[in-house]
Amino acid sequence: MSAFVRRNGVLHAESVSLLDLARRFGTPCWVYSRLALESALDEFQRELAGFDALVCYAVKANANLAVLDVFARRGAGFDIVSGGELQRVLAAGADPRRIVFSGVGKTAAEMELALATGILCFNVESAPEVDRLDAVAGRLGKIAPISLRVNPDVDPKTHPYISTGLKQNKFGVAYDDALALYRHAASLPHLEVSGIDCHIGSQLLDPAPFAEALDKILALVDQLASEGITLRHIDLGGGLGIRYRDEDVPTVQAYLQPLLRKLEGRRLRVLLEPGRRLVGNAGLLLTRVEYLKPGEVKSFAIVDAAMNDLARPALYGSWHDIVPVVAGPGEVIPWEVVGPVCESGDFLGHGRELALAAGDLLAVMSAGAYAMAMSSNYNSRPRAAEIMVDGAQAHLVRRRETAEELYALERRLP
Ligand SMILES: *Cc1c(COP(=O)(O)O)cnc(C)c1O
Questions:
Q1: How far is the CA of 237 from the centre of ligand 1 (A)?
Q2: Which residue from 60, 137, 167, 319 lies 20 to 30 Å from 369 (Cα-Cα)?
Q3: Residue ranges covered by each domain of the chain
Q4: 0.70 surpassed by pTM
Protein backbone atom coordinates (compact mmCIF):
# COMPACT_ATOMS: atom_id res chain seq x y z
CA MET A 1 0.00 0.00 0.00
CA SER A 2 1.73 3.15 -1.12
CA ALA A 3 0.60 6.26 0.66
CA PHE A 4 2.75 8.43 -1.60
CA VAL A 5 0.88 9.04 -4.83
CA ARG A 6 0.89 11.57 -7.64
CA ARG A 7 -2.29 13.61 -8.15
CA ASN A 8 -2.53 16.09 -11.02
CA GLY A 9 1.20 15.74 -11.41
CA VAL A 10 1.98 16.63 -7.78
CA LEU A 11 3.37 14.08 -5.34
CA HIS A 12 1.18 13.72 -2.25
CA ALA A 13 1.49 12.04 1.12
CA GLU A 14 -1.98 10.58 1.58
CA SER A 15 -4.20 13.63 0.82
CA VAL A 16 -1.58 16.29 1.48
CA SER A 17 0.47 17.85 -1.30
CA LEU A 18 4.21 17.90 -0.71
CA LEU A 19 4.22 21.44 -2.13
CA ASP A 20 2.01 22.45 0.79
CA LEU A 21 4.21 20.64 3.30
CA ALA A 22 7.34 22.39 2.00
CA ARG A 23 5.58 25.76 2.24
CA ARG A 24 4.31 25.11 5.75
CA PHE A 25 7.27 23.39 7.36
CA GLY A 26 10.26 24.23 5.16
CA THR A 27 12.88 21.86 3.80
CA PRO A 28 14.55 19.54 4.33
CA CYS A 29 11.91 17.59 6.23
CA TRP A 30 10.90 14.01 6.81
CA VAL A 31 7.37 13.05 5.84
CA TYR A 32 5.73 9.92 7.25
CA SER A 33 2.35 8.42 6.42
CA ARG A 34 0.30 7.08 9.31
CA LEU A 35 -1.66 4.94 6.88
CA ALA A 36 1.52 3.33 5.52
CA LEU A 37 2.78 2.62 9.05
CA GLU A 38 -0.50 1.03 10.05
CA SER A 39 -0.77 -1.00 6.84
CA ALA A 40 2.72 -2.37 7.33
CA LEU A 41 1.96 -3.48 10.89
CA ASP A 42 -1.43 -4.88 9.86
CA GLU A 43 0.26 -7.08 7.27
CA PHE A 44 2.17 -8.83 10.06
CA GLN A 45 -0.75 -8.97 12.45
CA ARG A 46 -3.03 -10.50 9.79
CA GLU A 47 -0.61 -13.38 9.21
CA LEU A 48 -0.25 -13.93 12.95
CA ALA A 49 -3.98 -14.00 13.70
CA GLY A 50 -4.73 -17.20 15.60
CA PHE A 51 -1.19 -17.49 16.91
CA ASP A 52 -0.03 -16.44 20.33
CA ALA A 53 2.25 -13.79 18.88
CA LEU A 54 3.62 -10.32 19.52
CA VAL A 55 5.17 -7.96 16.98
CA CYS A 56 7.90 -5.98 18.76
CA TYR A 57 8.82 -3.05 16.52
CA ALA A 58 12.60 -2.50 16.44
CA VAL A 59 12.71 1.06 17.71
CA LYS A 60 16.15 1.88 16.35
CA ALA A 61 14.78 2.00 12.78
CA ASN A 62 12.75 5.14 13.56
CA ALA A 63 12.31 6.25 17.14
CA ASN A 64 9.99 9.25 16.73
CA LEU A 65 7.37 9.27 19.52
CA ALA A 66 4.53 9.63 17.03
CA VAL A 67 5.70 6.55 15.12
CA LEU A 68 5.93 4.58 18.37
CA ASP A 69 2.51 5.85 19.38
CA VAL A 70 0.92 4.68 16.11
CA PHE A 71 2.29 1.18 16.71
CA ALA A 72 1.51 1.08 20.45
CA ARG A 73 -2.12 1.96 19.77
CA ARG A 74 -2.38 -1.07 17.49
CA GLY A 75 -1.05 -3.44 20.11
CA ALA A 76 2.57 -3.70 19.00
CA GLY A 77 5.37 -4.27 21.45
CA PHE A 78 8.88 -2.86 21.13
CA ASP A 79 12.40 -4.18 20.71
CA ILE A 80 14.82 -1.75 22.33
CA VAL A 81 18.61 -1.61 22.38
CA SER A 82 19.36 1.06 24.99
CA GLY A 83 18.11 2.77 28.12
CA GLY A 84 17.34 5.80 25.97
CA GLU A 85 15.03 3.72 23.79
CA LEU A 86 13.38 2.31 26.90
CA GLN A 87 12.58 5.81 28.14
CA ARG A 88 11.37 6.78 24.69
CA VAL A 89 8.92 3.88 24.35
CA LEU A 90 7.60 4.51 27.86
CA ALA A 91 7.12 8.18 26.95
CA ALA A 92 5.16 7.00 23.90
CA GLY A 93 2.82 4.99 26.13
CA ALA A 94 4.22 1.49 25.59
CA ASP A 95 3.12 -1.38 27.80
CA PRO A 96 6.25 -2.55 29.71
CA ARG A 97 5.10 -6.15 29.35
CA ARG A 98 5.52 -5.80 25.60
CA ILE A 99 9.14 -4.64 25.63
CA VAL A 100 12.14 -6.83 24.82
CA PHE A 101 15.66 -5.53 25.37
CA SER A 102 18.34 -6.54 22.82
CA GLY A 103 21.93 -5.38 22.41
CA VAL A 104 25.45 -6.62 23.14
CA GLY A 105 26.46 -3.93 25.62
CA LYS A 106 23.73 -3.44 28.22
CA THR A 107 25.11 -1.51 31.19
CA ALA A 108 24.17 -2.28 34.79
CA ALA A 109 22.24 1.00 34.90
CA GLU A 110 20.24 0.04 31.82
CA MET A 111 19.49 -3.37 33.36
CA GLU A 112 18.30 -1.69 36.57
CA LEU A 113 15.99 0.62 34.65
CA ALA A 114 14.53 -2.27 32.64
CA LEU A 115 14.08 -4.43 35.75
CA ALA A 116 12.35 -1.60 37.60
CA THR A 117 10.10 -1.11 34.56
CA GLY A 118 9.19 -4.79 34.44
CA ILE A 119 9.89 -5.58 30.78
CA LEU A 120 8.88 -8.81 29.03
CA CYS A 121 12.36 -10.14 28.33
CA PHE A 122 16.08 -9.45 28.16
CA ASN A 123 17.65 -10.82 24.99
CA VAL A 124 21.05 -11.70 26.44
CA GLU A 125 23.97 -11.78 24.04
CA SER A 126 26.95 -13.20 25.99
CA ALA A 127 28.04 -15.29 28.99
CA PRO A 128 29.28 -12.31 31.04
CA GLU A 129 25.97 -10.55 30.39
CA VAL A 130 24.15 -13.54 31.93
CA ASP A 131 26.18 -13.17 35.11
CA ARG A 132 25.87 -9.39 35.25
CA LEU A 133 22.10 -9.53 34.82
CA ASP A 134 21.79 -12.16 37.57
CA ALA A 135 23.84 -9.97 39.92
CA VAL A 136 21.89 -6.78 39.11
CA ALA A 137 18.54 -8.56 39.52
CA GLY A 138 19.75 -10.01 42.83
CA ARG A 139 20.68 -6.56 44.11
CA LEU A 140 17.20 -5.30 43.26
CA GLY A 141 15.44 -8.39 44.63
CA LYS A 142 14.02 -9.12 41.16
CA ILE A 143 13.91 -12.07 38.80
CA ALA A 144 14.99 -11.19 35.26
CA PRO A 145 13.23 -12.99 32.39
CA ILE A 146 15.77 -13.91 29.72
CA SER A 147 16.24 -15.26 26.22
CA LEU A 148 19.62 -16.06 24.83
CA ARG A 149 20.26 -14.54 21.45
CA VAL A 150 21.67 -17.49 19.61
CA ASN A 151 23.77 -17.03 16.53
CA PRO A 152 22.62 -19.73 14.11
CA ASP A 153 25.53 -19.12 11.70
CA VAL A 154 23.42 -18.79 8.57
CA ASP A 155 24.36 -16.46 5.75
CA PRO A 156 21.60 -13.95 5.10
CA LYS A 157 23.33 -12.75 1.88
CA THR A 158 22.91 -9.08 2.66
CA HIS A 159 25.34 -6.17 3.03
CA PRO A 160 28.21 -7.17 5.36
CA TYR A 161 27.52 -4.17 7.62
CA ILE A 162 23.97 -5.40 8.28
CA SER A 163 24.49 -9.17 8.42
CA THR A 164 24.50 -10.22 12.05
CA GLY A 165 24.00 -13.99 12.25
CA LEU A 166 27.39 -15.24 11.09
CA LYS A 167 30.09 -16.67 13.34
CA GLN A 168 32.30 -13.66 12.69
CA ASN A 169 29.66 -11.16 13.88
CA LYS A 170 29.75 -9.58 17.33
CA PHE A 171 26.13 -10.46 18.07
CA GLY A 172 24.66 -13.30 20.07
CA VAL A 173 25.99 -16.50 21.58
CA ALA A 174 27.67 -19.07 19.33
CA TYR A 175 25.30 -21.90 18.50
CA ASP A 176 27.64 -24.52 19.95
CA ASP A 177 27.94 -22.64 23.26
CA ALA A 178 24.22 -22.00 23.71
CA LEU A 179 23.28 -25.23 25.48
CA ALA A 180 25.93 -24.85 28.17
CA LEU A 181 25.05 -21.21 28.72
CA TYR A 182 21.34 -22.06 29.05
CA ARG A 183 22.23 -24.69 31.70
CA HIS A 184 24.27 -22.08 33.56
CA ALA A 185 21.53 -19.43 33.30
CA ALA A 186 18.90 -21.90 34.53
CA SER A 187 21.04 -22.54 37.61
CA LEU A 188 21.20 -18.87 38.60
CA PRO A 189 18.79 -17.65 41.30
CA HIS A 190 17.76 -14.31 39.83
CA LEU A 191 17.13 -15.31 36.23
CA GLU A 192 14.14 -16.97 34.69
CA VAL A 193 14.86 -18.69 31.39
CA SER A 194 11.91 -17.68 29.30
CA GLY A 195 12.77 -17.85 25.61
CA ILE A 196 15.21 -18.00 22.76
CA ASP A 197 16.04 -15.32 20.25
CA CYS A 198 17.82 -14.89 16.94
CA HIS A 199 18.24 -12.06 14.45
CA ILE A 200 20.33 -12.86 11.40
CA GLY A 201 20.59 -9.59 9.52
CA SER A 202 18.75 -6.78 7.84
CA GLN A 203 17.25 -6.05 4.41
CA LEU A 204 16.85 -9.78 3.68
CA LEU A 205 15.09 -10.46 0.40
CA ASP A 206 15.10 -14.26 0.50
CA PRO A 207 12.92 -16.04 3.10
CA ALA A 208 15.10 -19.19 3.01
CA PRO A 209 17.75 -18.12 5.58
CA PHE A 210 14.99 -17.36 8.11
CA ALA A 211 13.69 -20.93 7.80
CA GLU A 212 17.21 -22.32 8.00
CA ALA A 213 17.82 -20.34 11.19
CA LEU A 214 14.51 -21.46 12.69
CA ASP A 215 15.34 -25.15 12.10
CA LYS A 216 18.58 -24.71 14.01
CA ILE A 217 16.85 -22.82 16.81
CA LEU A 218 14.09 -25.43 17.12
CA ALA A 219 16.67 -28.22 17.42
CA LEU A 220 18.07 -26.32 20.38
CA VAL A 221 14.59 -25.78 21.86
CA ASP A 222 14.05 -29.57 21.77
CA GLN A 223 17.43 -30.30 23.30
CA LEU A 224 16.68 -27.87 26.11
CA ALA A 225 13.26 -29.41 26.70
CA SER A 226 14.85 -32.84 27.02
CA GLU A 227 16.95 -31.41 29.84
CA GLY A 228 13.93 -29.92 31.58
CA ILE A 229 14.49 -26.35 30.38
CA THR A 230 11.14 -25.48 28.81
CA LEU A 231 10.93 -22.23 26.89
CA ARG A 232 7.80 -20.15 26.66
CA HIS A 233 8.62 -18.07 23.62
CA ILE A 234 10.71 -17.96 20.49
CA ASP A 235 11.80 -14.61 19.07
CA LEU A 236 12.57 -14.70 15.35
CA GLY A 237 14.07 -11.20 15.21
CA GLY A 238 13.58 -8.80 12.33
CA GLY A 239 15.36 -8.37 9.04
CA LEU A 240 12.70 -8.57 6.33
CA GLY A 241 13.69 -6.28 3.47
CA ILE A 242 11.84 -3.58 1.59
CA ARG A 243 11.90 -2.29 -1.97
CA TYR A 244 14.29 0.61 -2.44
CA ARG A 245 14.63 0.35 -6.22
CA ASP A 246 13.41 -2.68 -8.14
CA GLU A 247 14.18 -5.52 -5.73
CA ASP A 248 11.87 -8.52 -5.63
CA VAL A 249 10.60 -8.31 -2.08
CA PRO A 250 8.83 -11.22 -0.40
CA THR A 251 5.40 -10.54 1.04
CA VAL A 252 5.04 -10.83 4.79
CA GLN A 253 2.96 -13.91 4.08
CA ALA A 254 5.72 -15.57 2.03
CA TYR A 255 8.15 -14.78 4.83
CA LEU A 256 5.99 -15.89 7.75
CA GLN A 257 4.00 -18.87 6.46
CA PRO A 258 6.97 -21.29 6.26
CA LEU A 259 8.05 -20.20 9.74
CA LEU A 260 4.59 -20.51 11.27
CA ARG A 261 4.19 -23.98 9.73
CA LYS A 262 7.33 -25.11 11.52
CA LEU A 263 5.93 -23.76 14.79
CA GLU A 264 2.50 -25.38 14.50
CA GLY A 265 1.65 -27.69 17.39
CA ARG A 266 4.37 -26.24 19.60
CA ARG A 267 3.31 -24.36 22.66
CA LEU A 268 5.63 -21.46 21.99
CA ARG A 269 4.62 -17.83 21.88
CA VAL A 270 6.07 -16.16 18.76
CA LEU A 271 7.84 -12.81 18.96
CA LEU A 272 9.00 -10.85 15.92
CA GLU A 273 11.22 -7.77 15.80
CA PRO A 274 10.66 -6.10 12.42
CA GLY A 275 12.07 -2.62 12.01
CA ARG A 276 12.77 -1.55 8.43
CA ARG A 277 9.74 -3.40 7.03
CA LEU A 278 7.35 -1.46 9.26
CA VAL A 279 8.69 2.03 8.59
CA GLY A 280 11.06 2.06 5.60
CA ASN A 281 8.53 2.68 2.85
CA ALA A 282 6.33 4.84 5.09
CA GLY A 283 8.65 7.85 4.98
CA LEU A 284 10.41 10.16 2.55
CA LEU A 285 12.88 13.00 2.78
CA LEU A 286 11.65 16.21 1.16
CA THR A 287 14.44 18.44 -0.10
CA ARG A 288 14.86 21.47 -2.35
CA VAL A 289 17.40 22.06 -5.11
CA GLU A 290 19.60 24.98 -4.07
CA TYR A 291 21.99 25.15 -7.00
CA LEU A 292 22.65 23.43 -10.28
CA LYS A 293 26.24 23.02 -11.42
CA PRO A 294 26.17 21.43 -14.86
CA GLY A 295 29.60 20.28 -15.96
CA GLU A 296 31.42 18.49 -18.74
CA VAL A 297 32.12 15.34 -16.77
CA LYS A 298 29.38 15.46 -14.17
CA SER A 299 26.46 17.71 -13.40
CA PHE A 300 25.74 18.41 -9.77
CA ALA A 301 22.38 19.21 -8.21
CA ILE A 302 23.10 20.61 -4.77
CA VAL A 303 20.11 20.07 -2.51
CA ASP A 304 19.40 21.25 1.03
CA ALA A 305 19.46 17.73 2.53
CA ALA A 306 22.77 15.96 3.07
CA MET A 307 24.57 12.95 4.50
CA ASN A 308 24.01 14.30 8.01
CA ASP A 309 20.27 13.87 7.34
CA LEU A 310 20.34 10.65 5.32
CA ALA A 311 23.58 8.76 5.89
CA ARG A 312 22.68 5.50 4.15
CA PRO A 313 24.00 6.36 0.67
CA ALA A 314 27.32 7.58 2.09
CA LEU A 315 27.51 4.78 4.67
CA TYR A 316 26.43 1.71 2.68
CA GLY A 317 26.23 3.00 -0.88
CA SER A 318 22.47 2.54 -0.59
CA TRP A 319 20.06 3.45 -3.36
CA HIS A 320 17.05 5.64 -2.62
CA ASP A 321 14.73 6.62 -5.45
CA ILE A 322 14.78 10.39 -5.99
CA VAL A 323 11.68 11.77 -7.68
CA PRO A 324 10.50 15.29 -8.48
CA VAL A 325 7.51 16.55 -6.51
CA VAL A 326 6.39 18.19 -9.76
CA ALA A 327 8.02 16.92 -12.95
CA GLY A 328 9.99 19.75 -14.56
CA PRO A 329 9.69 20.74 -18.22
CA GLY A 330 13.42 20.80 -18.98
CA GLU A 331 15.79 18.26 -20.48
CA VAL A 332 16.34 15.00 -18.59
CA ILE A 333 20.04 14.51 -17.89
CA PRO A 334 21.98 12.51 -15.28
CA TRP A 335 22.55 14.49 -12.08
CA GLU A 336 24.78 13.87 -9.10
CA VAL A 337 22.34 14.70 -6.30
CA VAL A 338 24.55 15.93 -3.47
CA GLY A 339 24.27 17.84 -0.22
CA PRO A 340 26.15 20.88 1.10
CA VAL A 341 28.35 18.91 3.53
CA CYS A 342 32.09 19.24 2.99
CA GLU A 343 32.79 15.60 2.10
CA SER A 344 33.01 14.04 -1.35
CA GLY A 345 31.02 11.13 0.09
CA ASP A 346 28.09 13.45 0.70
CA PHE A 347 25.67 12.23 -1.95
CA LEU A 348 22.06 11.12 -2.05
CA GLY A 349 22.18 9.66 -5.55
CA HIS A 350 24.58 9.31 -8.48
CA GLY A 351 23.64 9.86 -12.11
CA ARG A 352 19.91 10.32 -11.56
CA GLU A 353 17.95 11.01 -14.74
CA LEU A 354 15.98 14.14 -13.88
CA ALA A 355 14.84 17.39 -15.46
CA LEU A 356 15.83 19.92 -12.82
CA ALA A 357 15.70 23.64 -12.17
CA ALA A 358 16.96 25.47 -9.08
CA GLY A 359 14.20 25.67 -6.49
CA ASP A 360 12.62 22.33 -7.47
CA LEU A 361 11.44 20.00 -4.74
CA LEU A 362 12.66 16.41 -4.70
CA ALA A 363 11.44 13.47 -2.65
CA VAL A 364 14.02 10.93 -1.52
CA MET A 365 11.89 7.81 -1.17
CA SER A 366 11.93 4.88 1.25
CA ALA A 367 13.45 7.08 3.92
CA GLY A 368 11.42 5.94 6.93
CA ALA A 369 13.99 3.51 8.35
CA TYR A 370 17.58 4.10 9.52
CA ALA A 371 17.27 7.58 8.12
CA MET A 372 16.34 10.33 10.62
CA ALA A 373 17.36 7.78 13.27
CA MET A 374 20.97 7.91 12.00
CA SER A 375 21.08 11.64 11.34
CA SER A 376 23.71 13.87 12.92
CA ASN A 377 24.57 17.52 13.30
CA TYR A 378 27.74 17.21 11.21
CA ASN A 379 28.72 20.57 9.71
CA SER A 380 26.54 22.14 12.45
CA ARG A 381 23.41 21.41 10.53
CA PRO A 382 20.25 21.42 12.64
CA ARG A 383 18.27 18.20 12.31
CA ALA A 384 15.33 18.45 9.93
CA ALA A 385 11.69 18.56 11.02
CA GLU A 386 9.52 15.43 11.00
CA ILE A 387 5.93 15.52 9.77
CA MET A 388 3.30 12.79 10.16
CA VAL A 389 0.52 12.92 7.62
CA ASP A 390 -2.79 11.37 8.61
CA GLY A 391 -5.38 11.64 5.84
CA ALA A 392 -5.77 15.35 5.11
CA GLN A 393 -3.94 16.40 8.29
CA ALA A 394 -0.24 17.08 8.69
CA HIS A 395 1.21 17.02 12.20
CA LEU A 396 4.61 18.43 13.08
CA VAL A 397 5.94 15.53 15.19
CA ARG A 398 9.45 16.92 15.65
CA ARG A 399 10.20 20.54 15.03
CA ARG A 400 13.33 21.59 13.21
CA GLU A 401 16.31 22.09 15.50
CA THR A 402 17.60 25.62 15.95
CA ALA A 403 21.20 26.80 15.62
CA GLU A 404 21.26 27.66 19.36
CA GLU A 405 20.32 24.07 20.20
CA LEU A 406 23.43 22.86 18.39
CA TYR A 407 25.69 24.32 21.07
CA ALA A 408 23.27 24.61 23.99
CA LEU A 409 25.15 21.92 25.97
CA GLU A 410 28.56 23.49 25.40
CA ARG A 411 30.44 26.07 27.47
CA ARG A 412 33.31 28.40 26.71
CA LEU A 413 36.26 28.24 29.08
CA PRO A 414 35.80 30.24 32.32
C1 LIG B 1 18.06 -3.94 14.14
C2 LIG B 1 17.42 -5.10 14.79
C3 LIG B 1 16.14 -5.52 14.40
C4 LIG B 1 15.40 -4.90 13.26
O5 LIG B 1 16.00 -5.19 12.04
P6 LIG B 1 15.27 -4.77 10.67
O7 LIG B 1 16.19 -5.25 9.63
O8 LIG B 1 15.10 -3.31 10.69
O9 LIG B 1 13.96 -5.50 10.65
C10 LIG B 1 15.57 -6.55 15.11
N11 LIG B 1 16.22 -7.16 16.14
C12 LIG B 1 17.44 -6.78 16.52
C13 LIG B 1 18.10 -7.48 17.65
C14 LIG B 1 18.09 -5.75 15.87
O15 LIG B 1 19.32 -5.40 16.24
A1: 6
A2: 167
A3: 4-32+280-406, 34-277
A4: yes
User: Over the stretch 321-343, which tens digit does the pLDDT of each residue have?
Assistant: 999 999 989 899 999 999 999 99
Give the whole-angstrom CA distance, residue 78 versus residue 65.
12
CA distance 235 to 197: 4
Q: What is the pLDDT of residues 243-271, one digit of tens each?
A: 999 999 999 999 999 999 999 999 999 99
Question: For the domain 34-277, what is the CATH superfamily, name and number?
Answer: Alanine racemase (3.20.20.10)
Q: How far apart are the CA of 55 and the centre of ligand 1, in A?
A: 12
Closest CA to 319 of 409, 414, 246, 392: 246
One-letter-per-residue 3-state SS of 237-263 = CCCECCCCCCCCCCCHHHHHHHHHHHH
Whether 342 is a known active-site residue: answer yes
Q: How far apart are alpha carbons 401 and 381 in whole angstroms?
A: 9
CATH 2.40.37.10 fits 4-32+280-406, yes or no: yes
Neighbours of 50 (CB within 10 A): 7
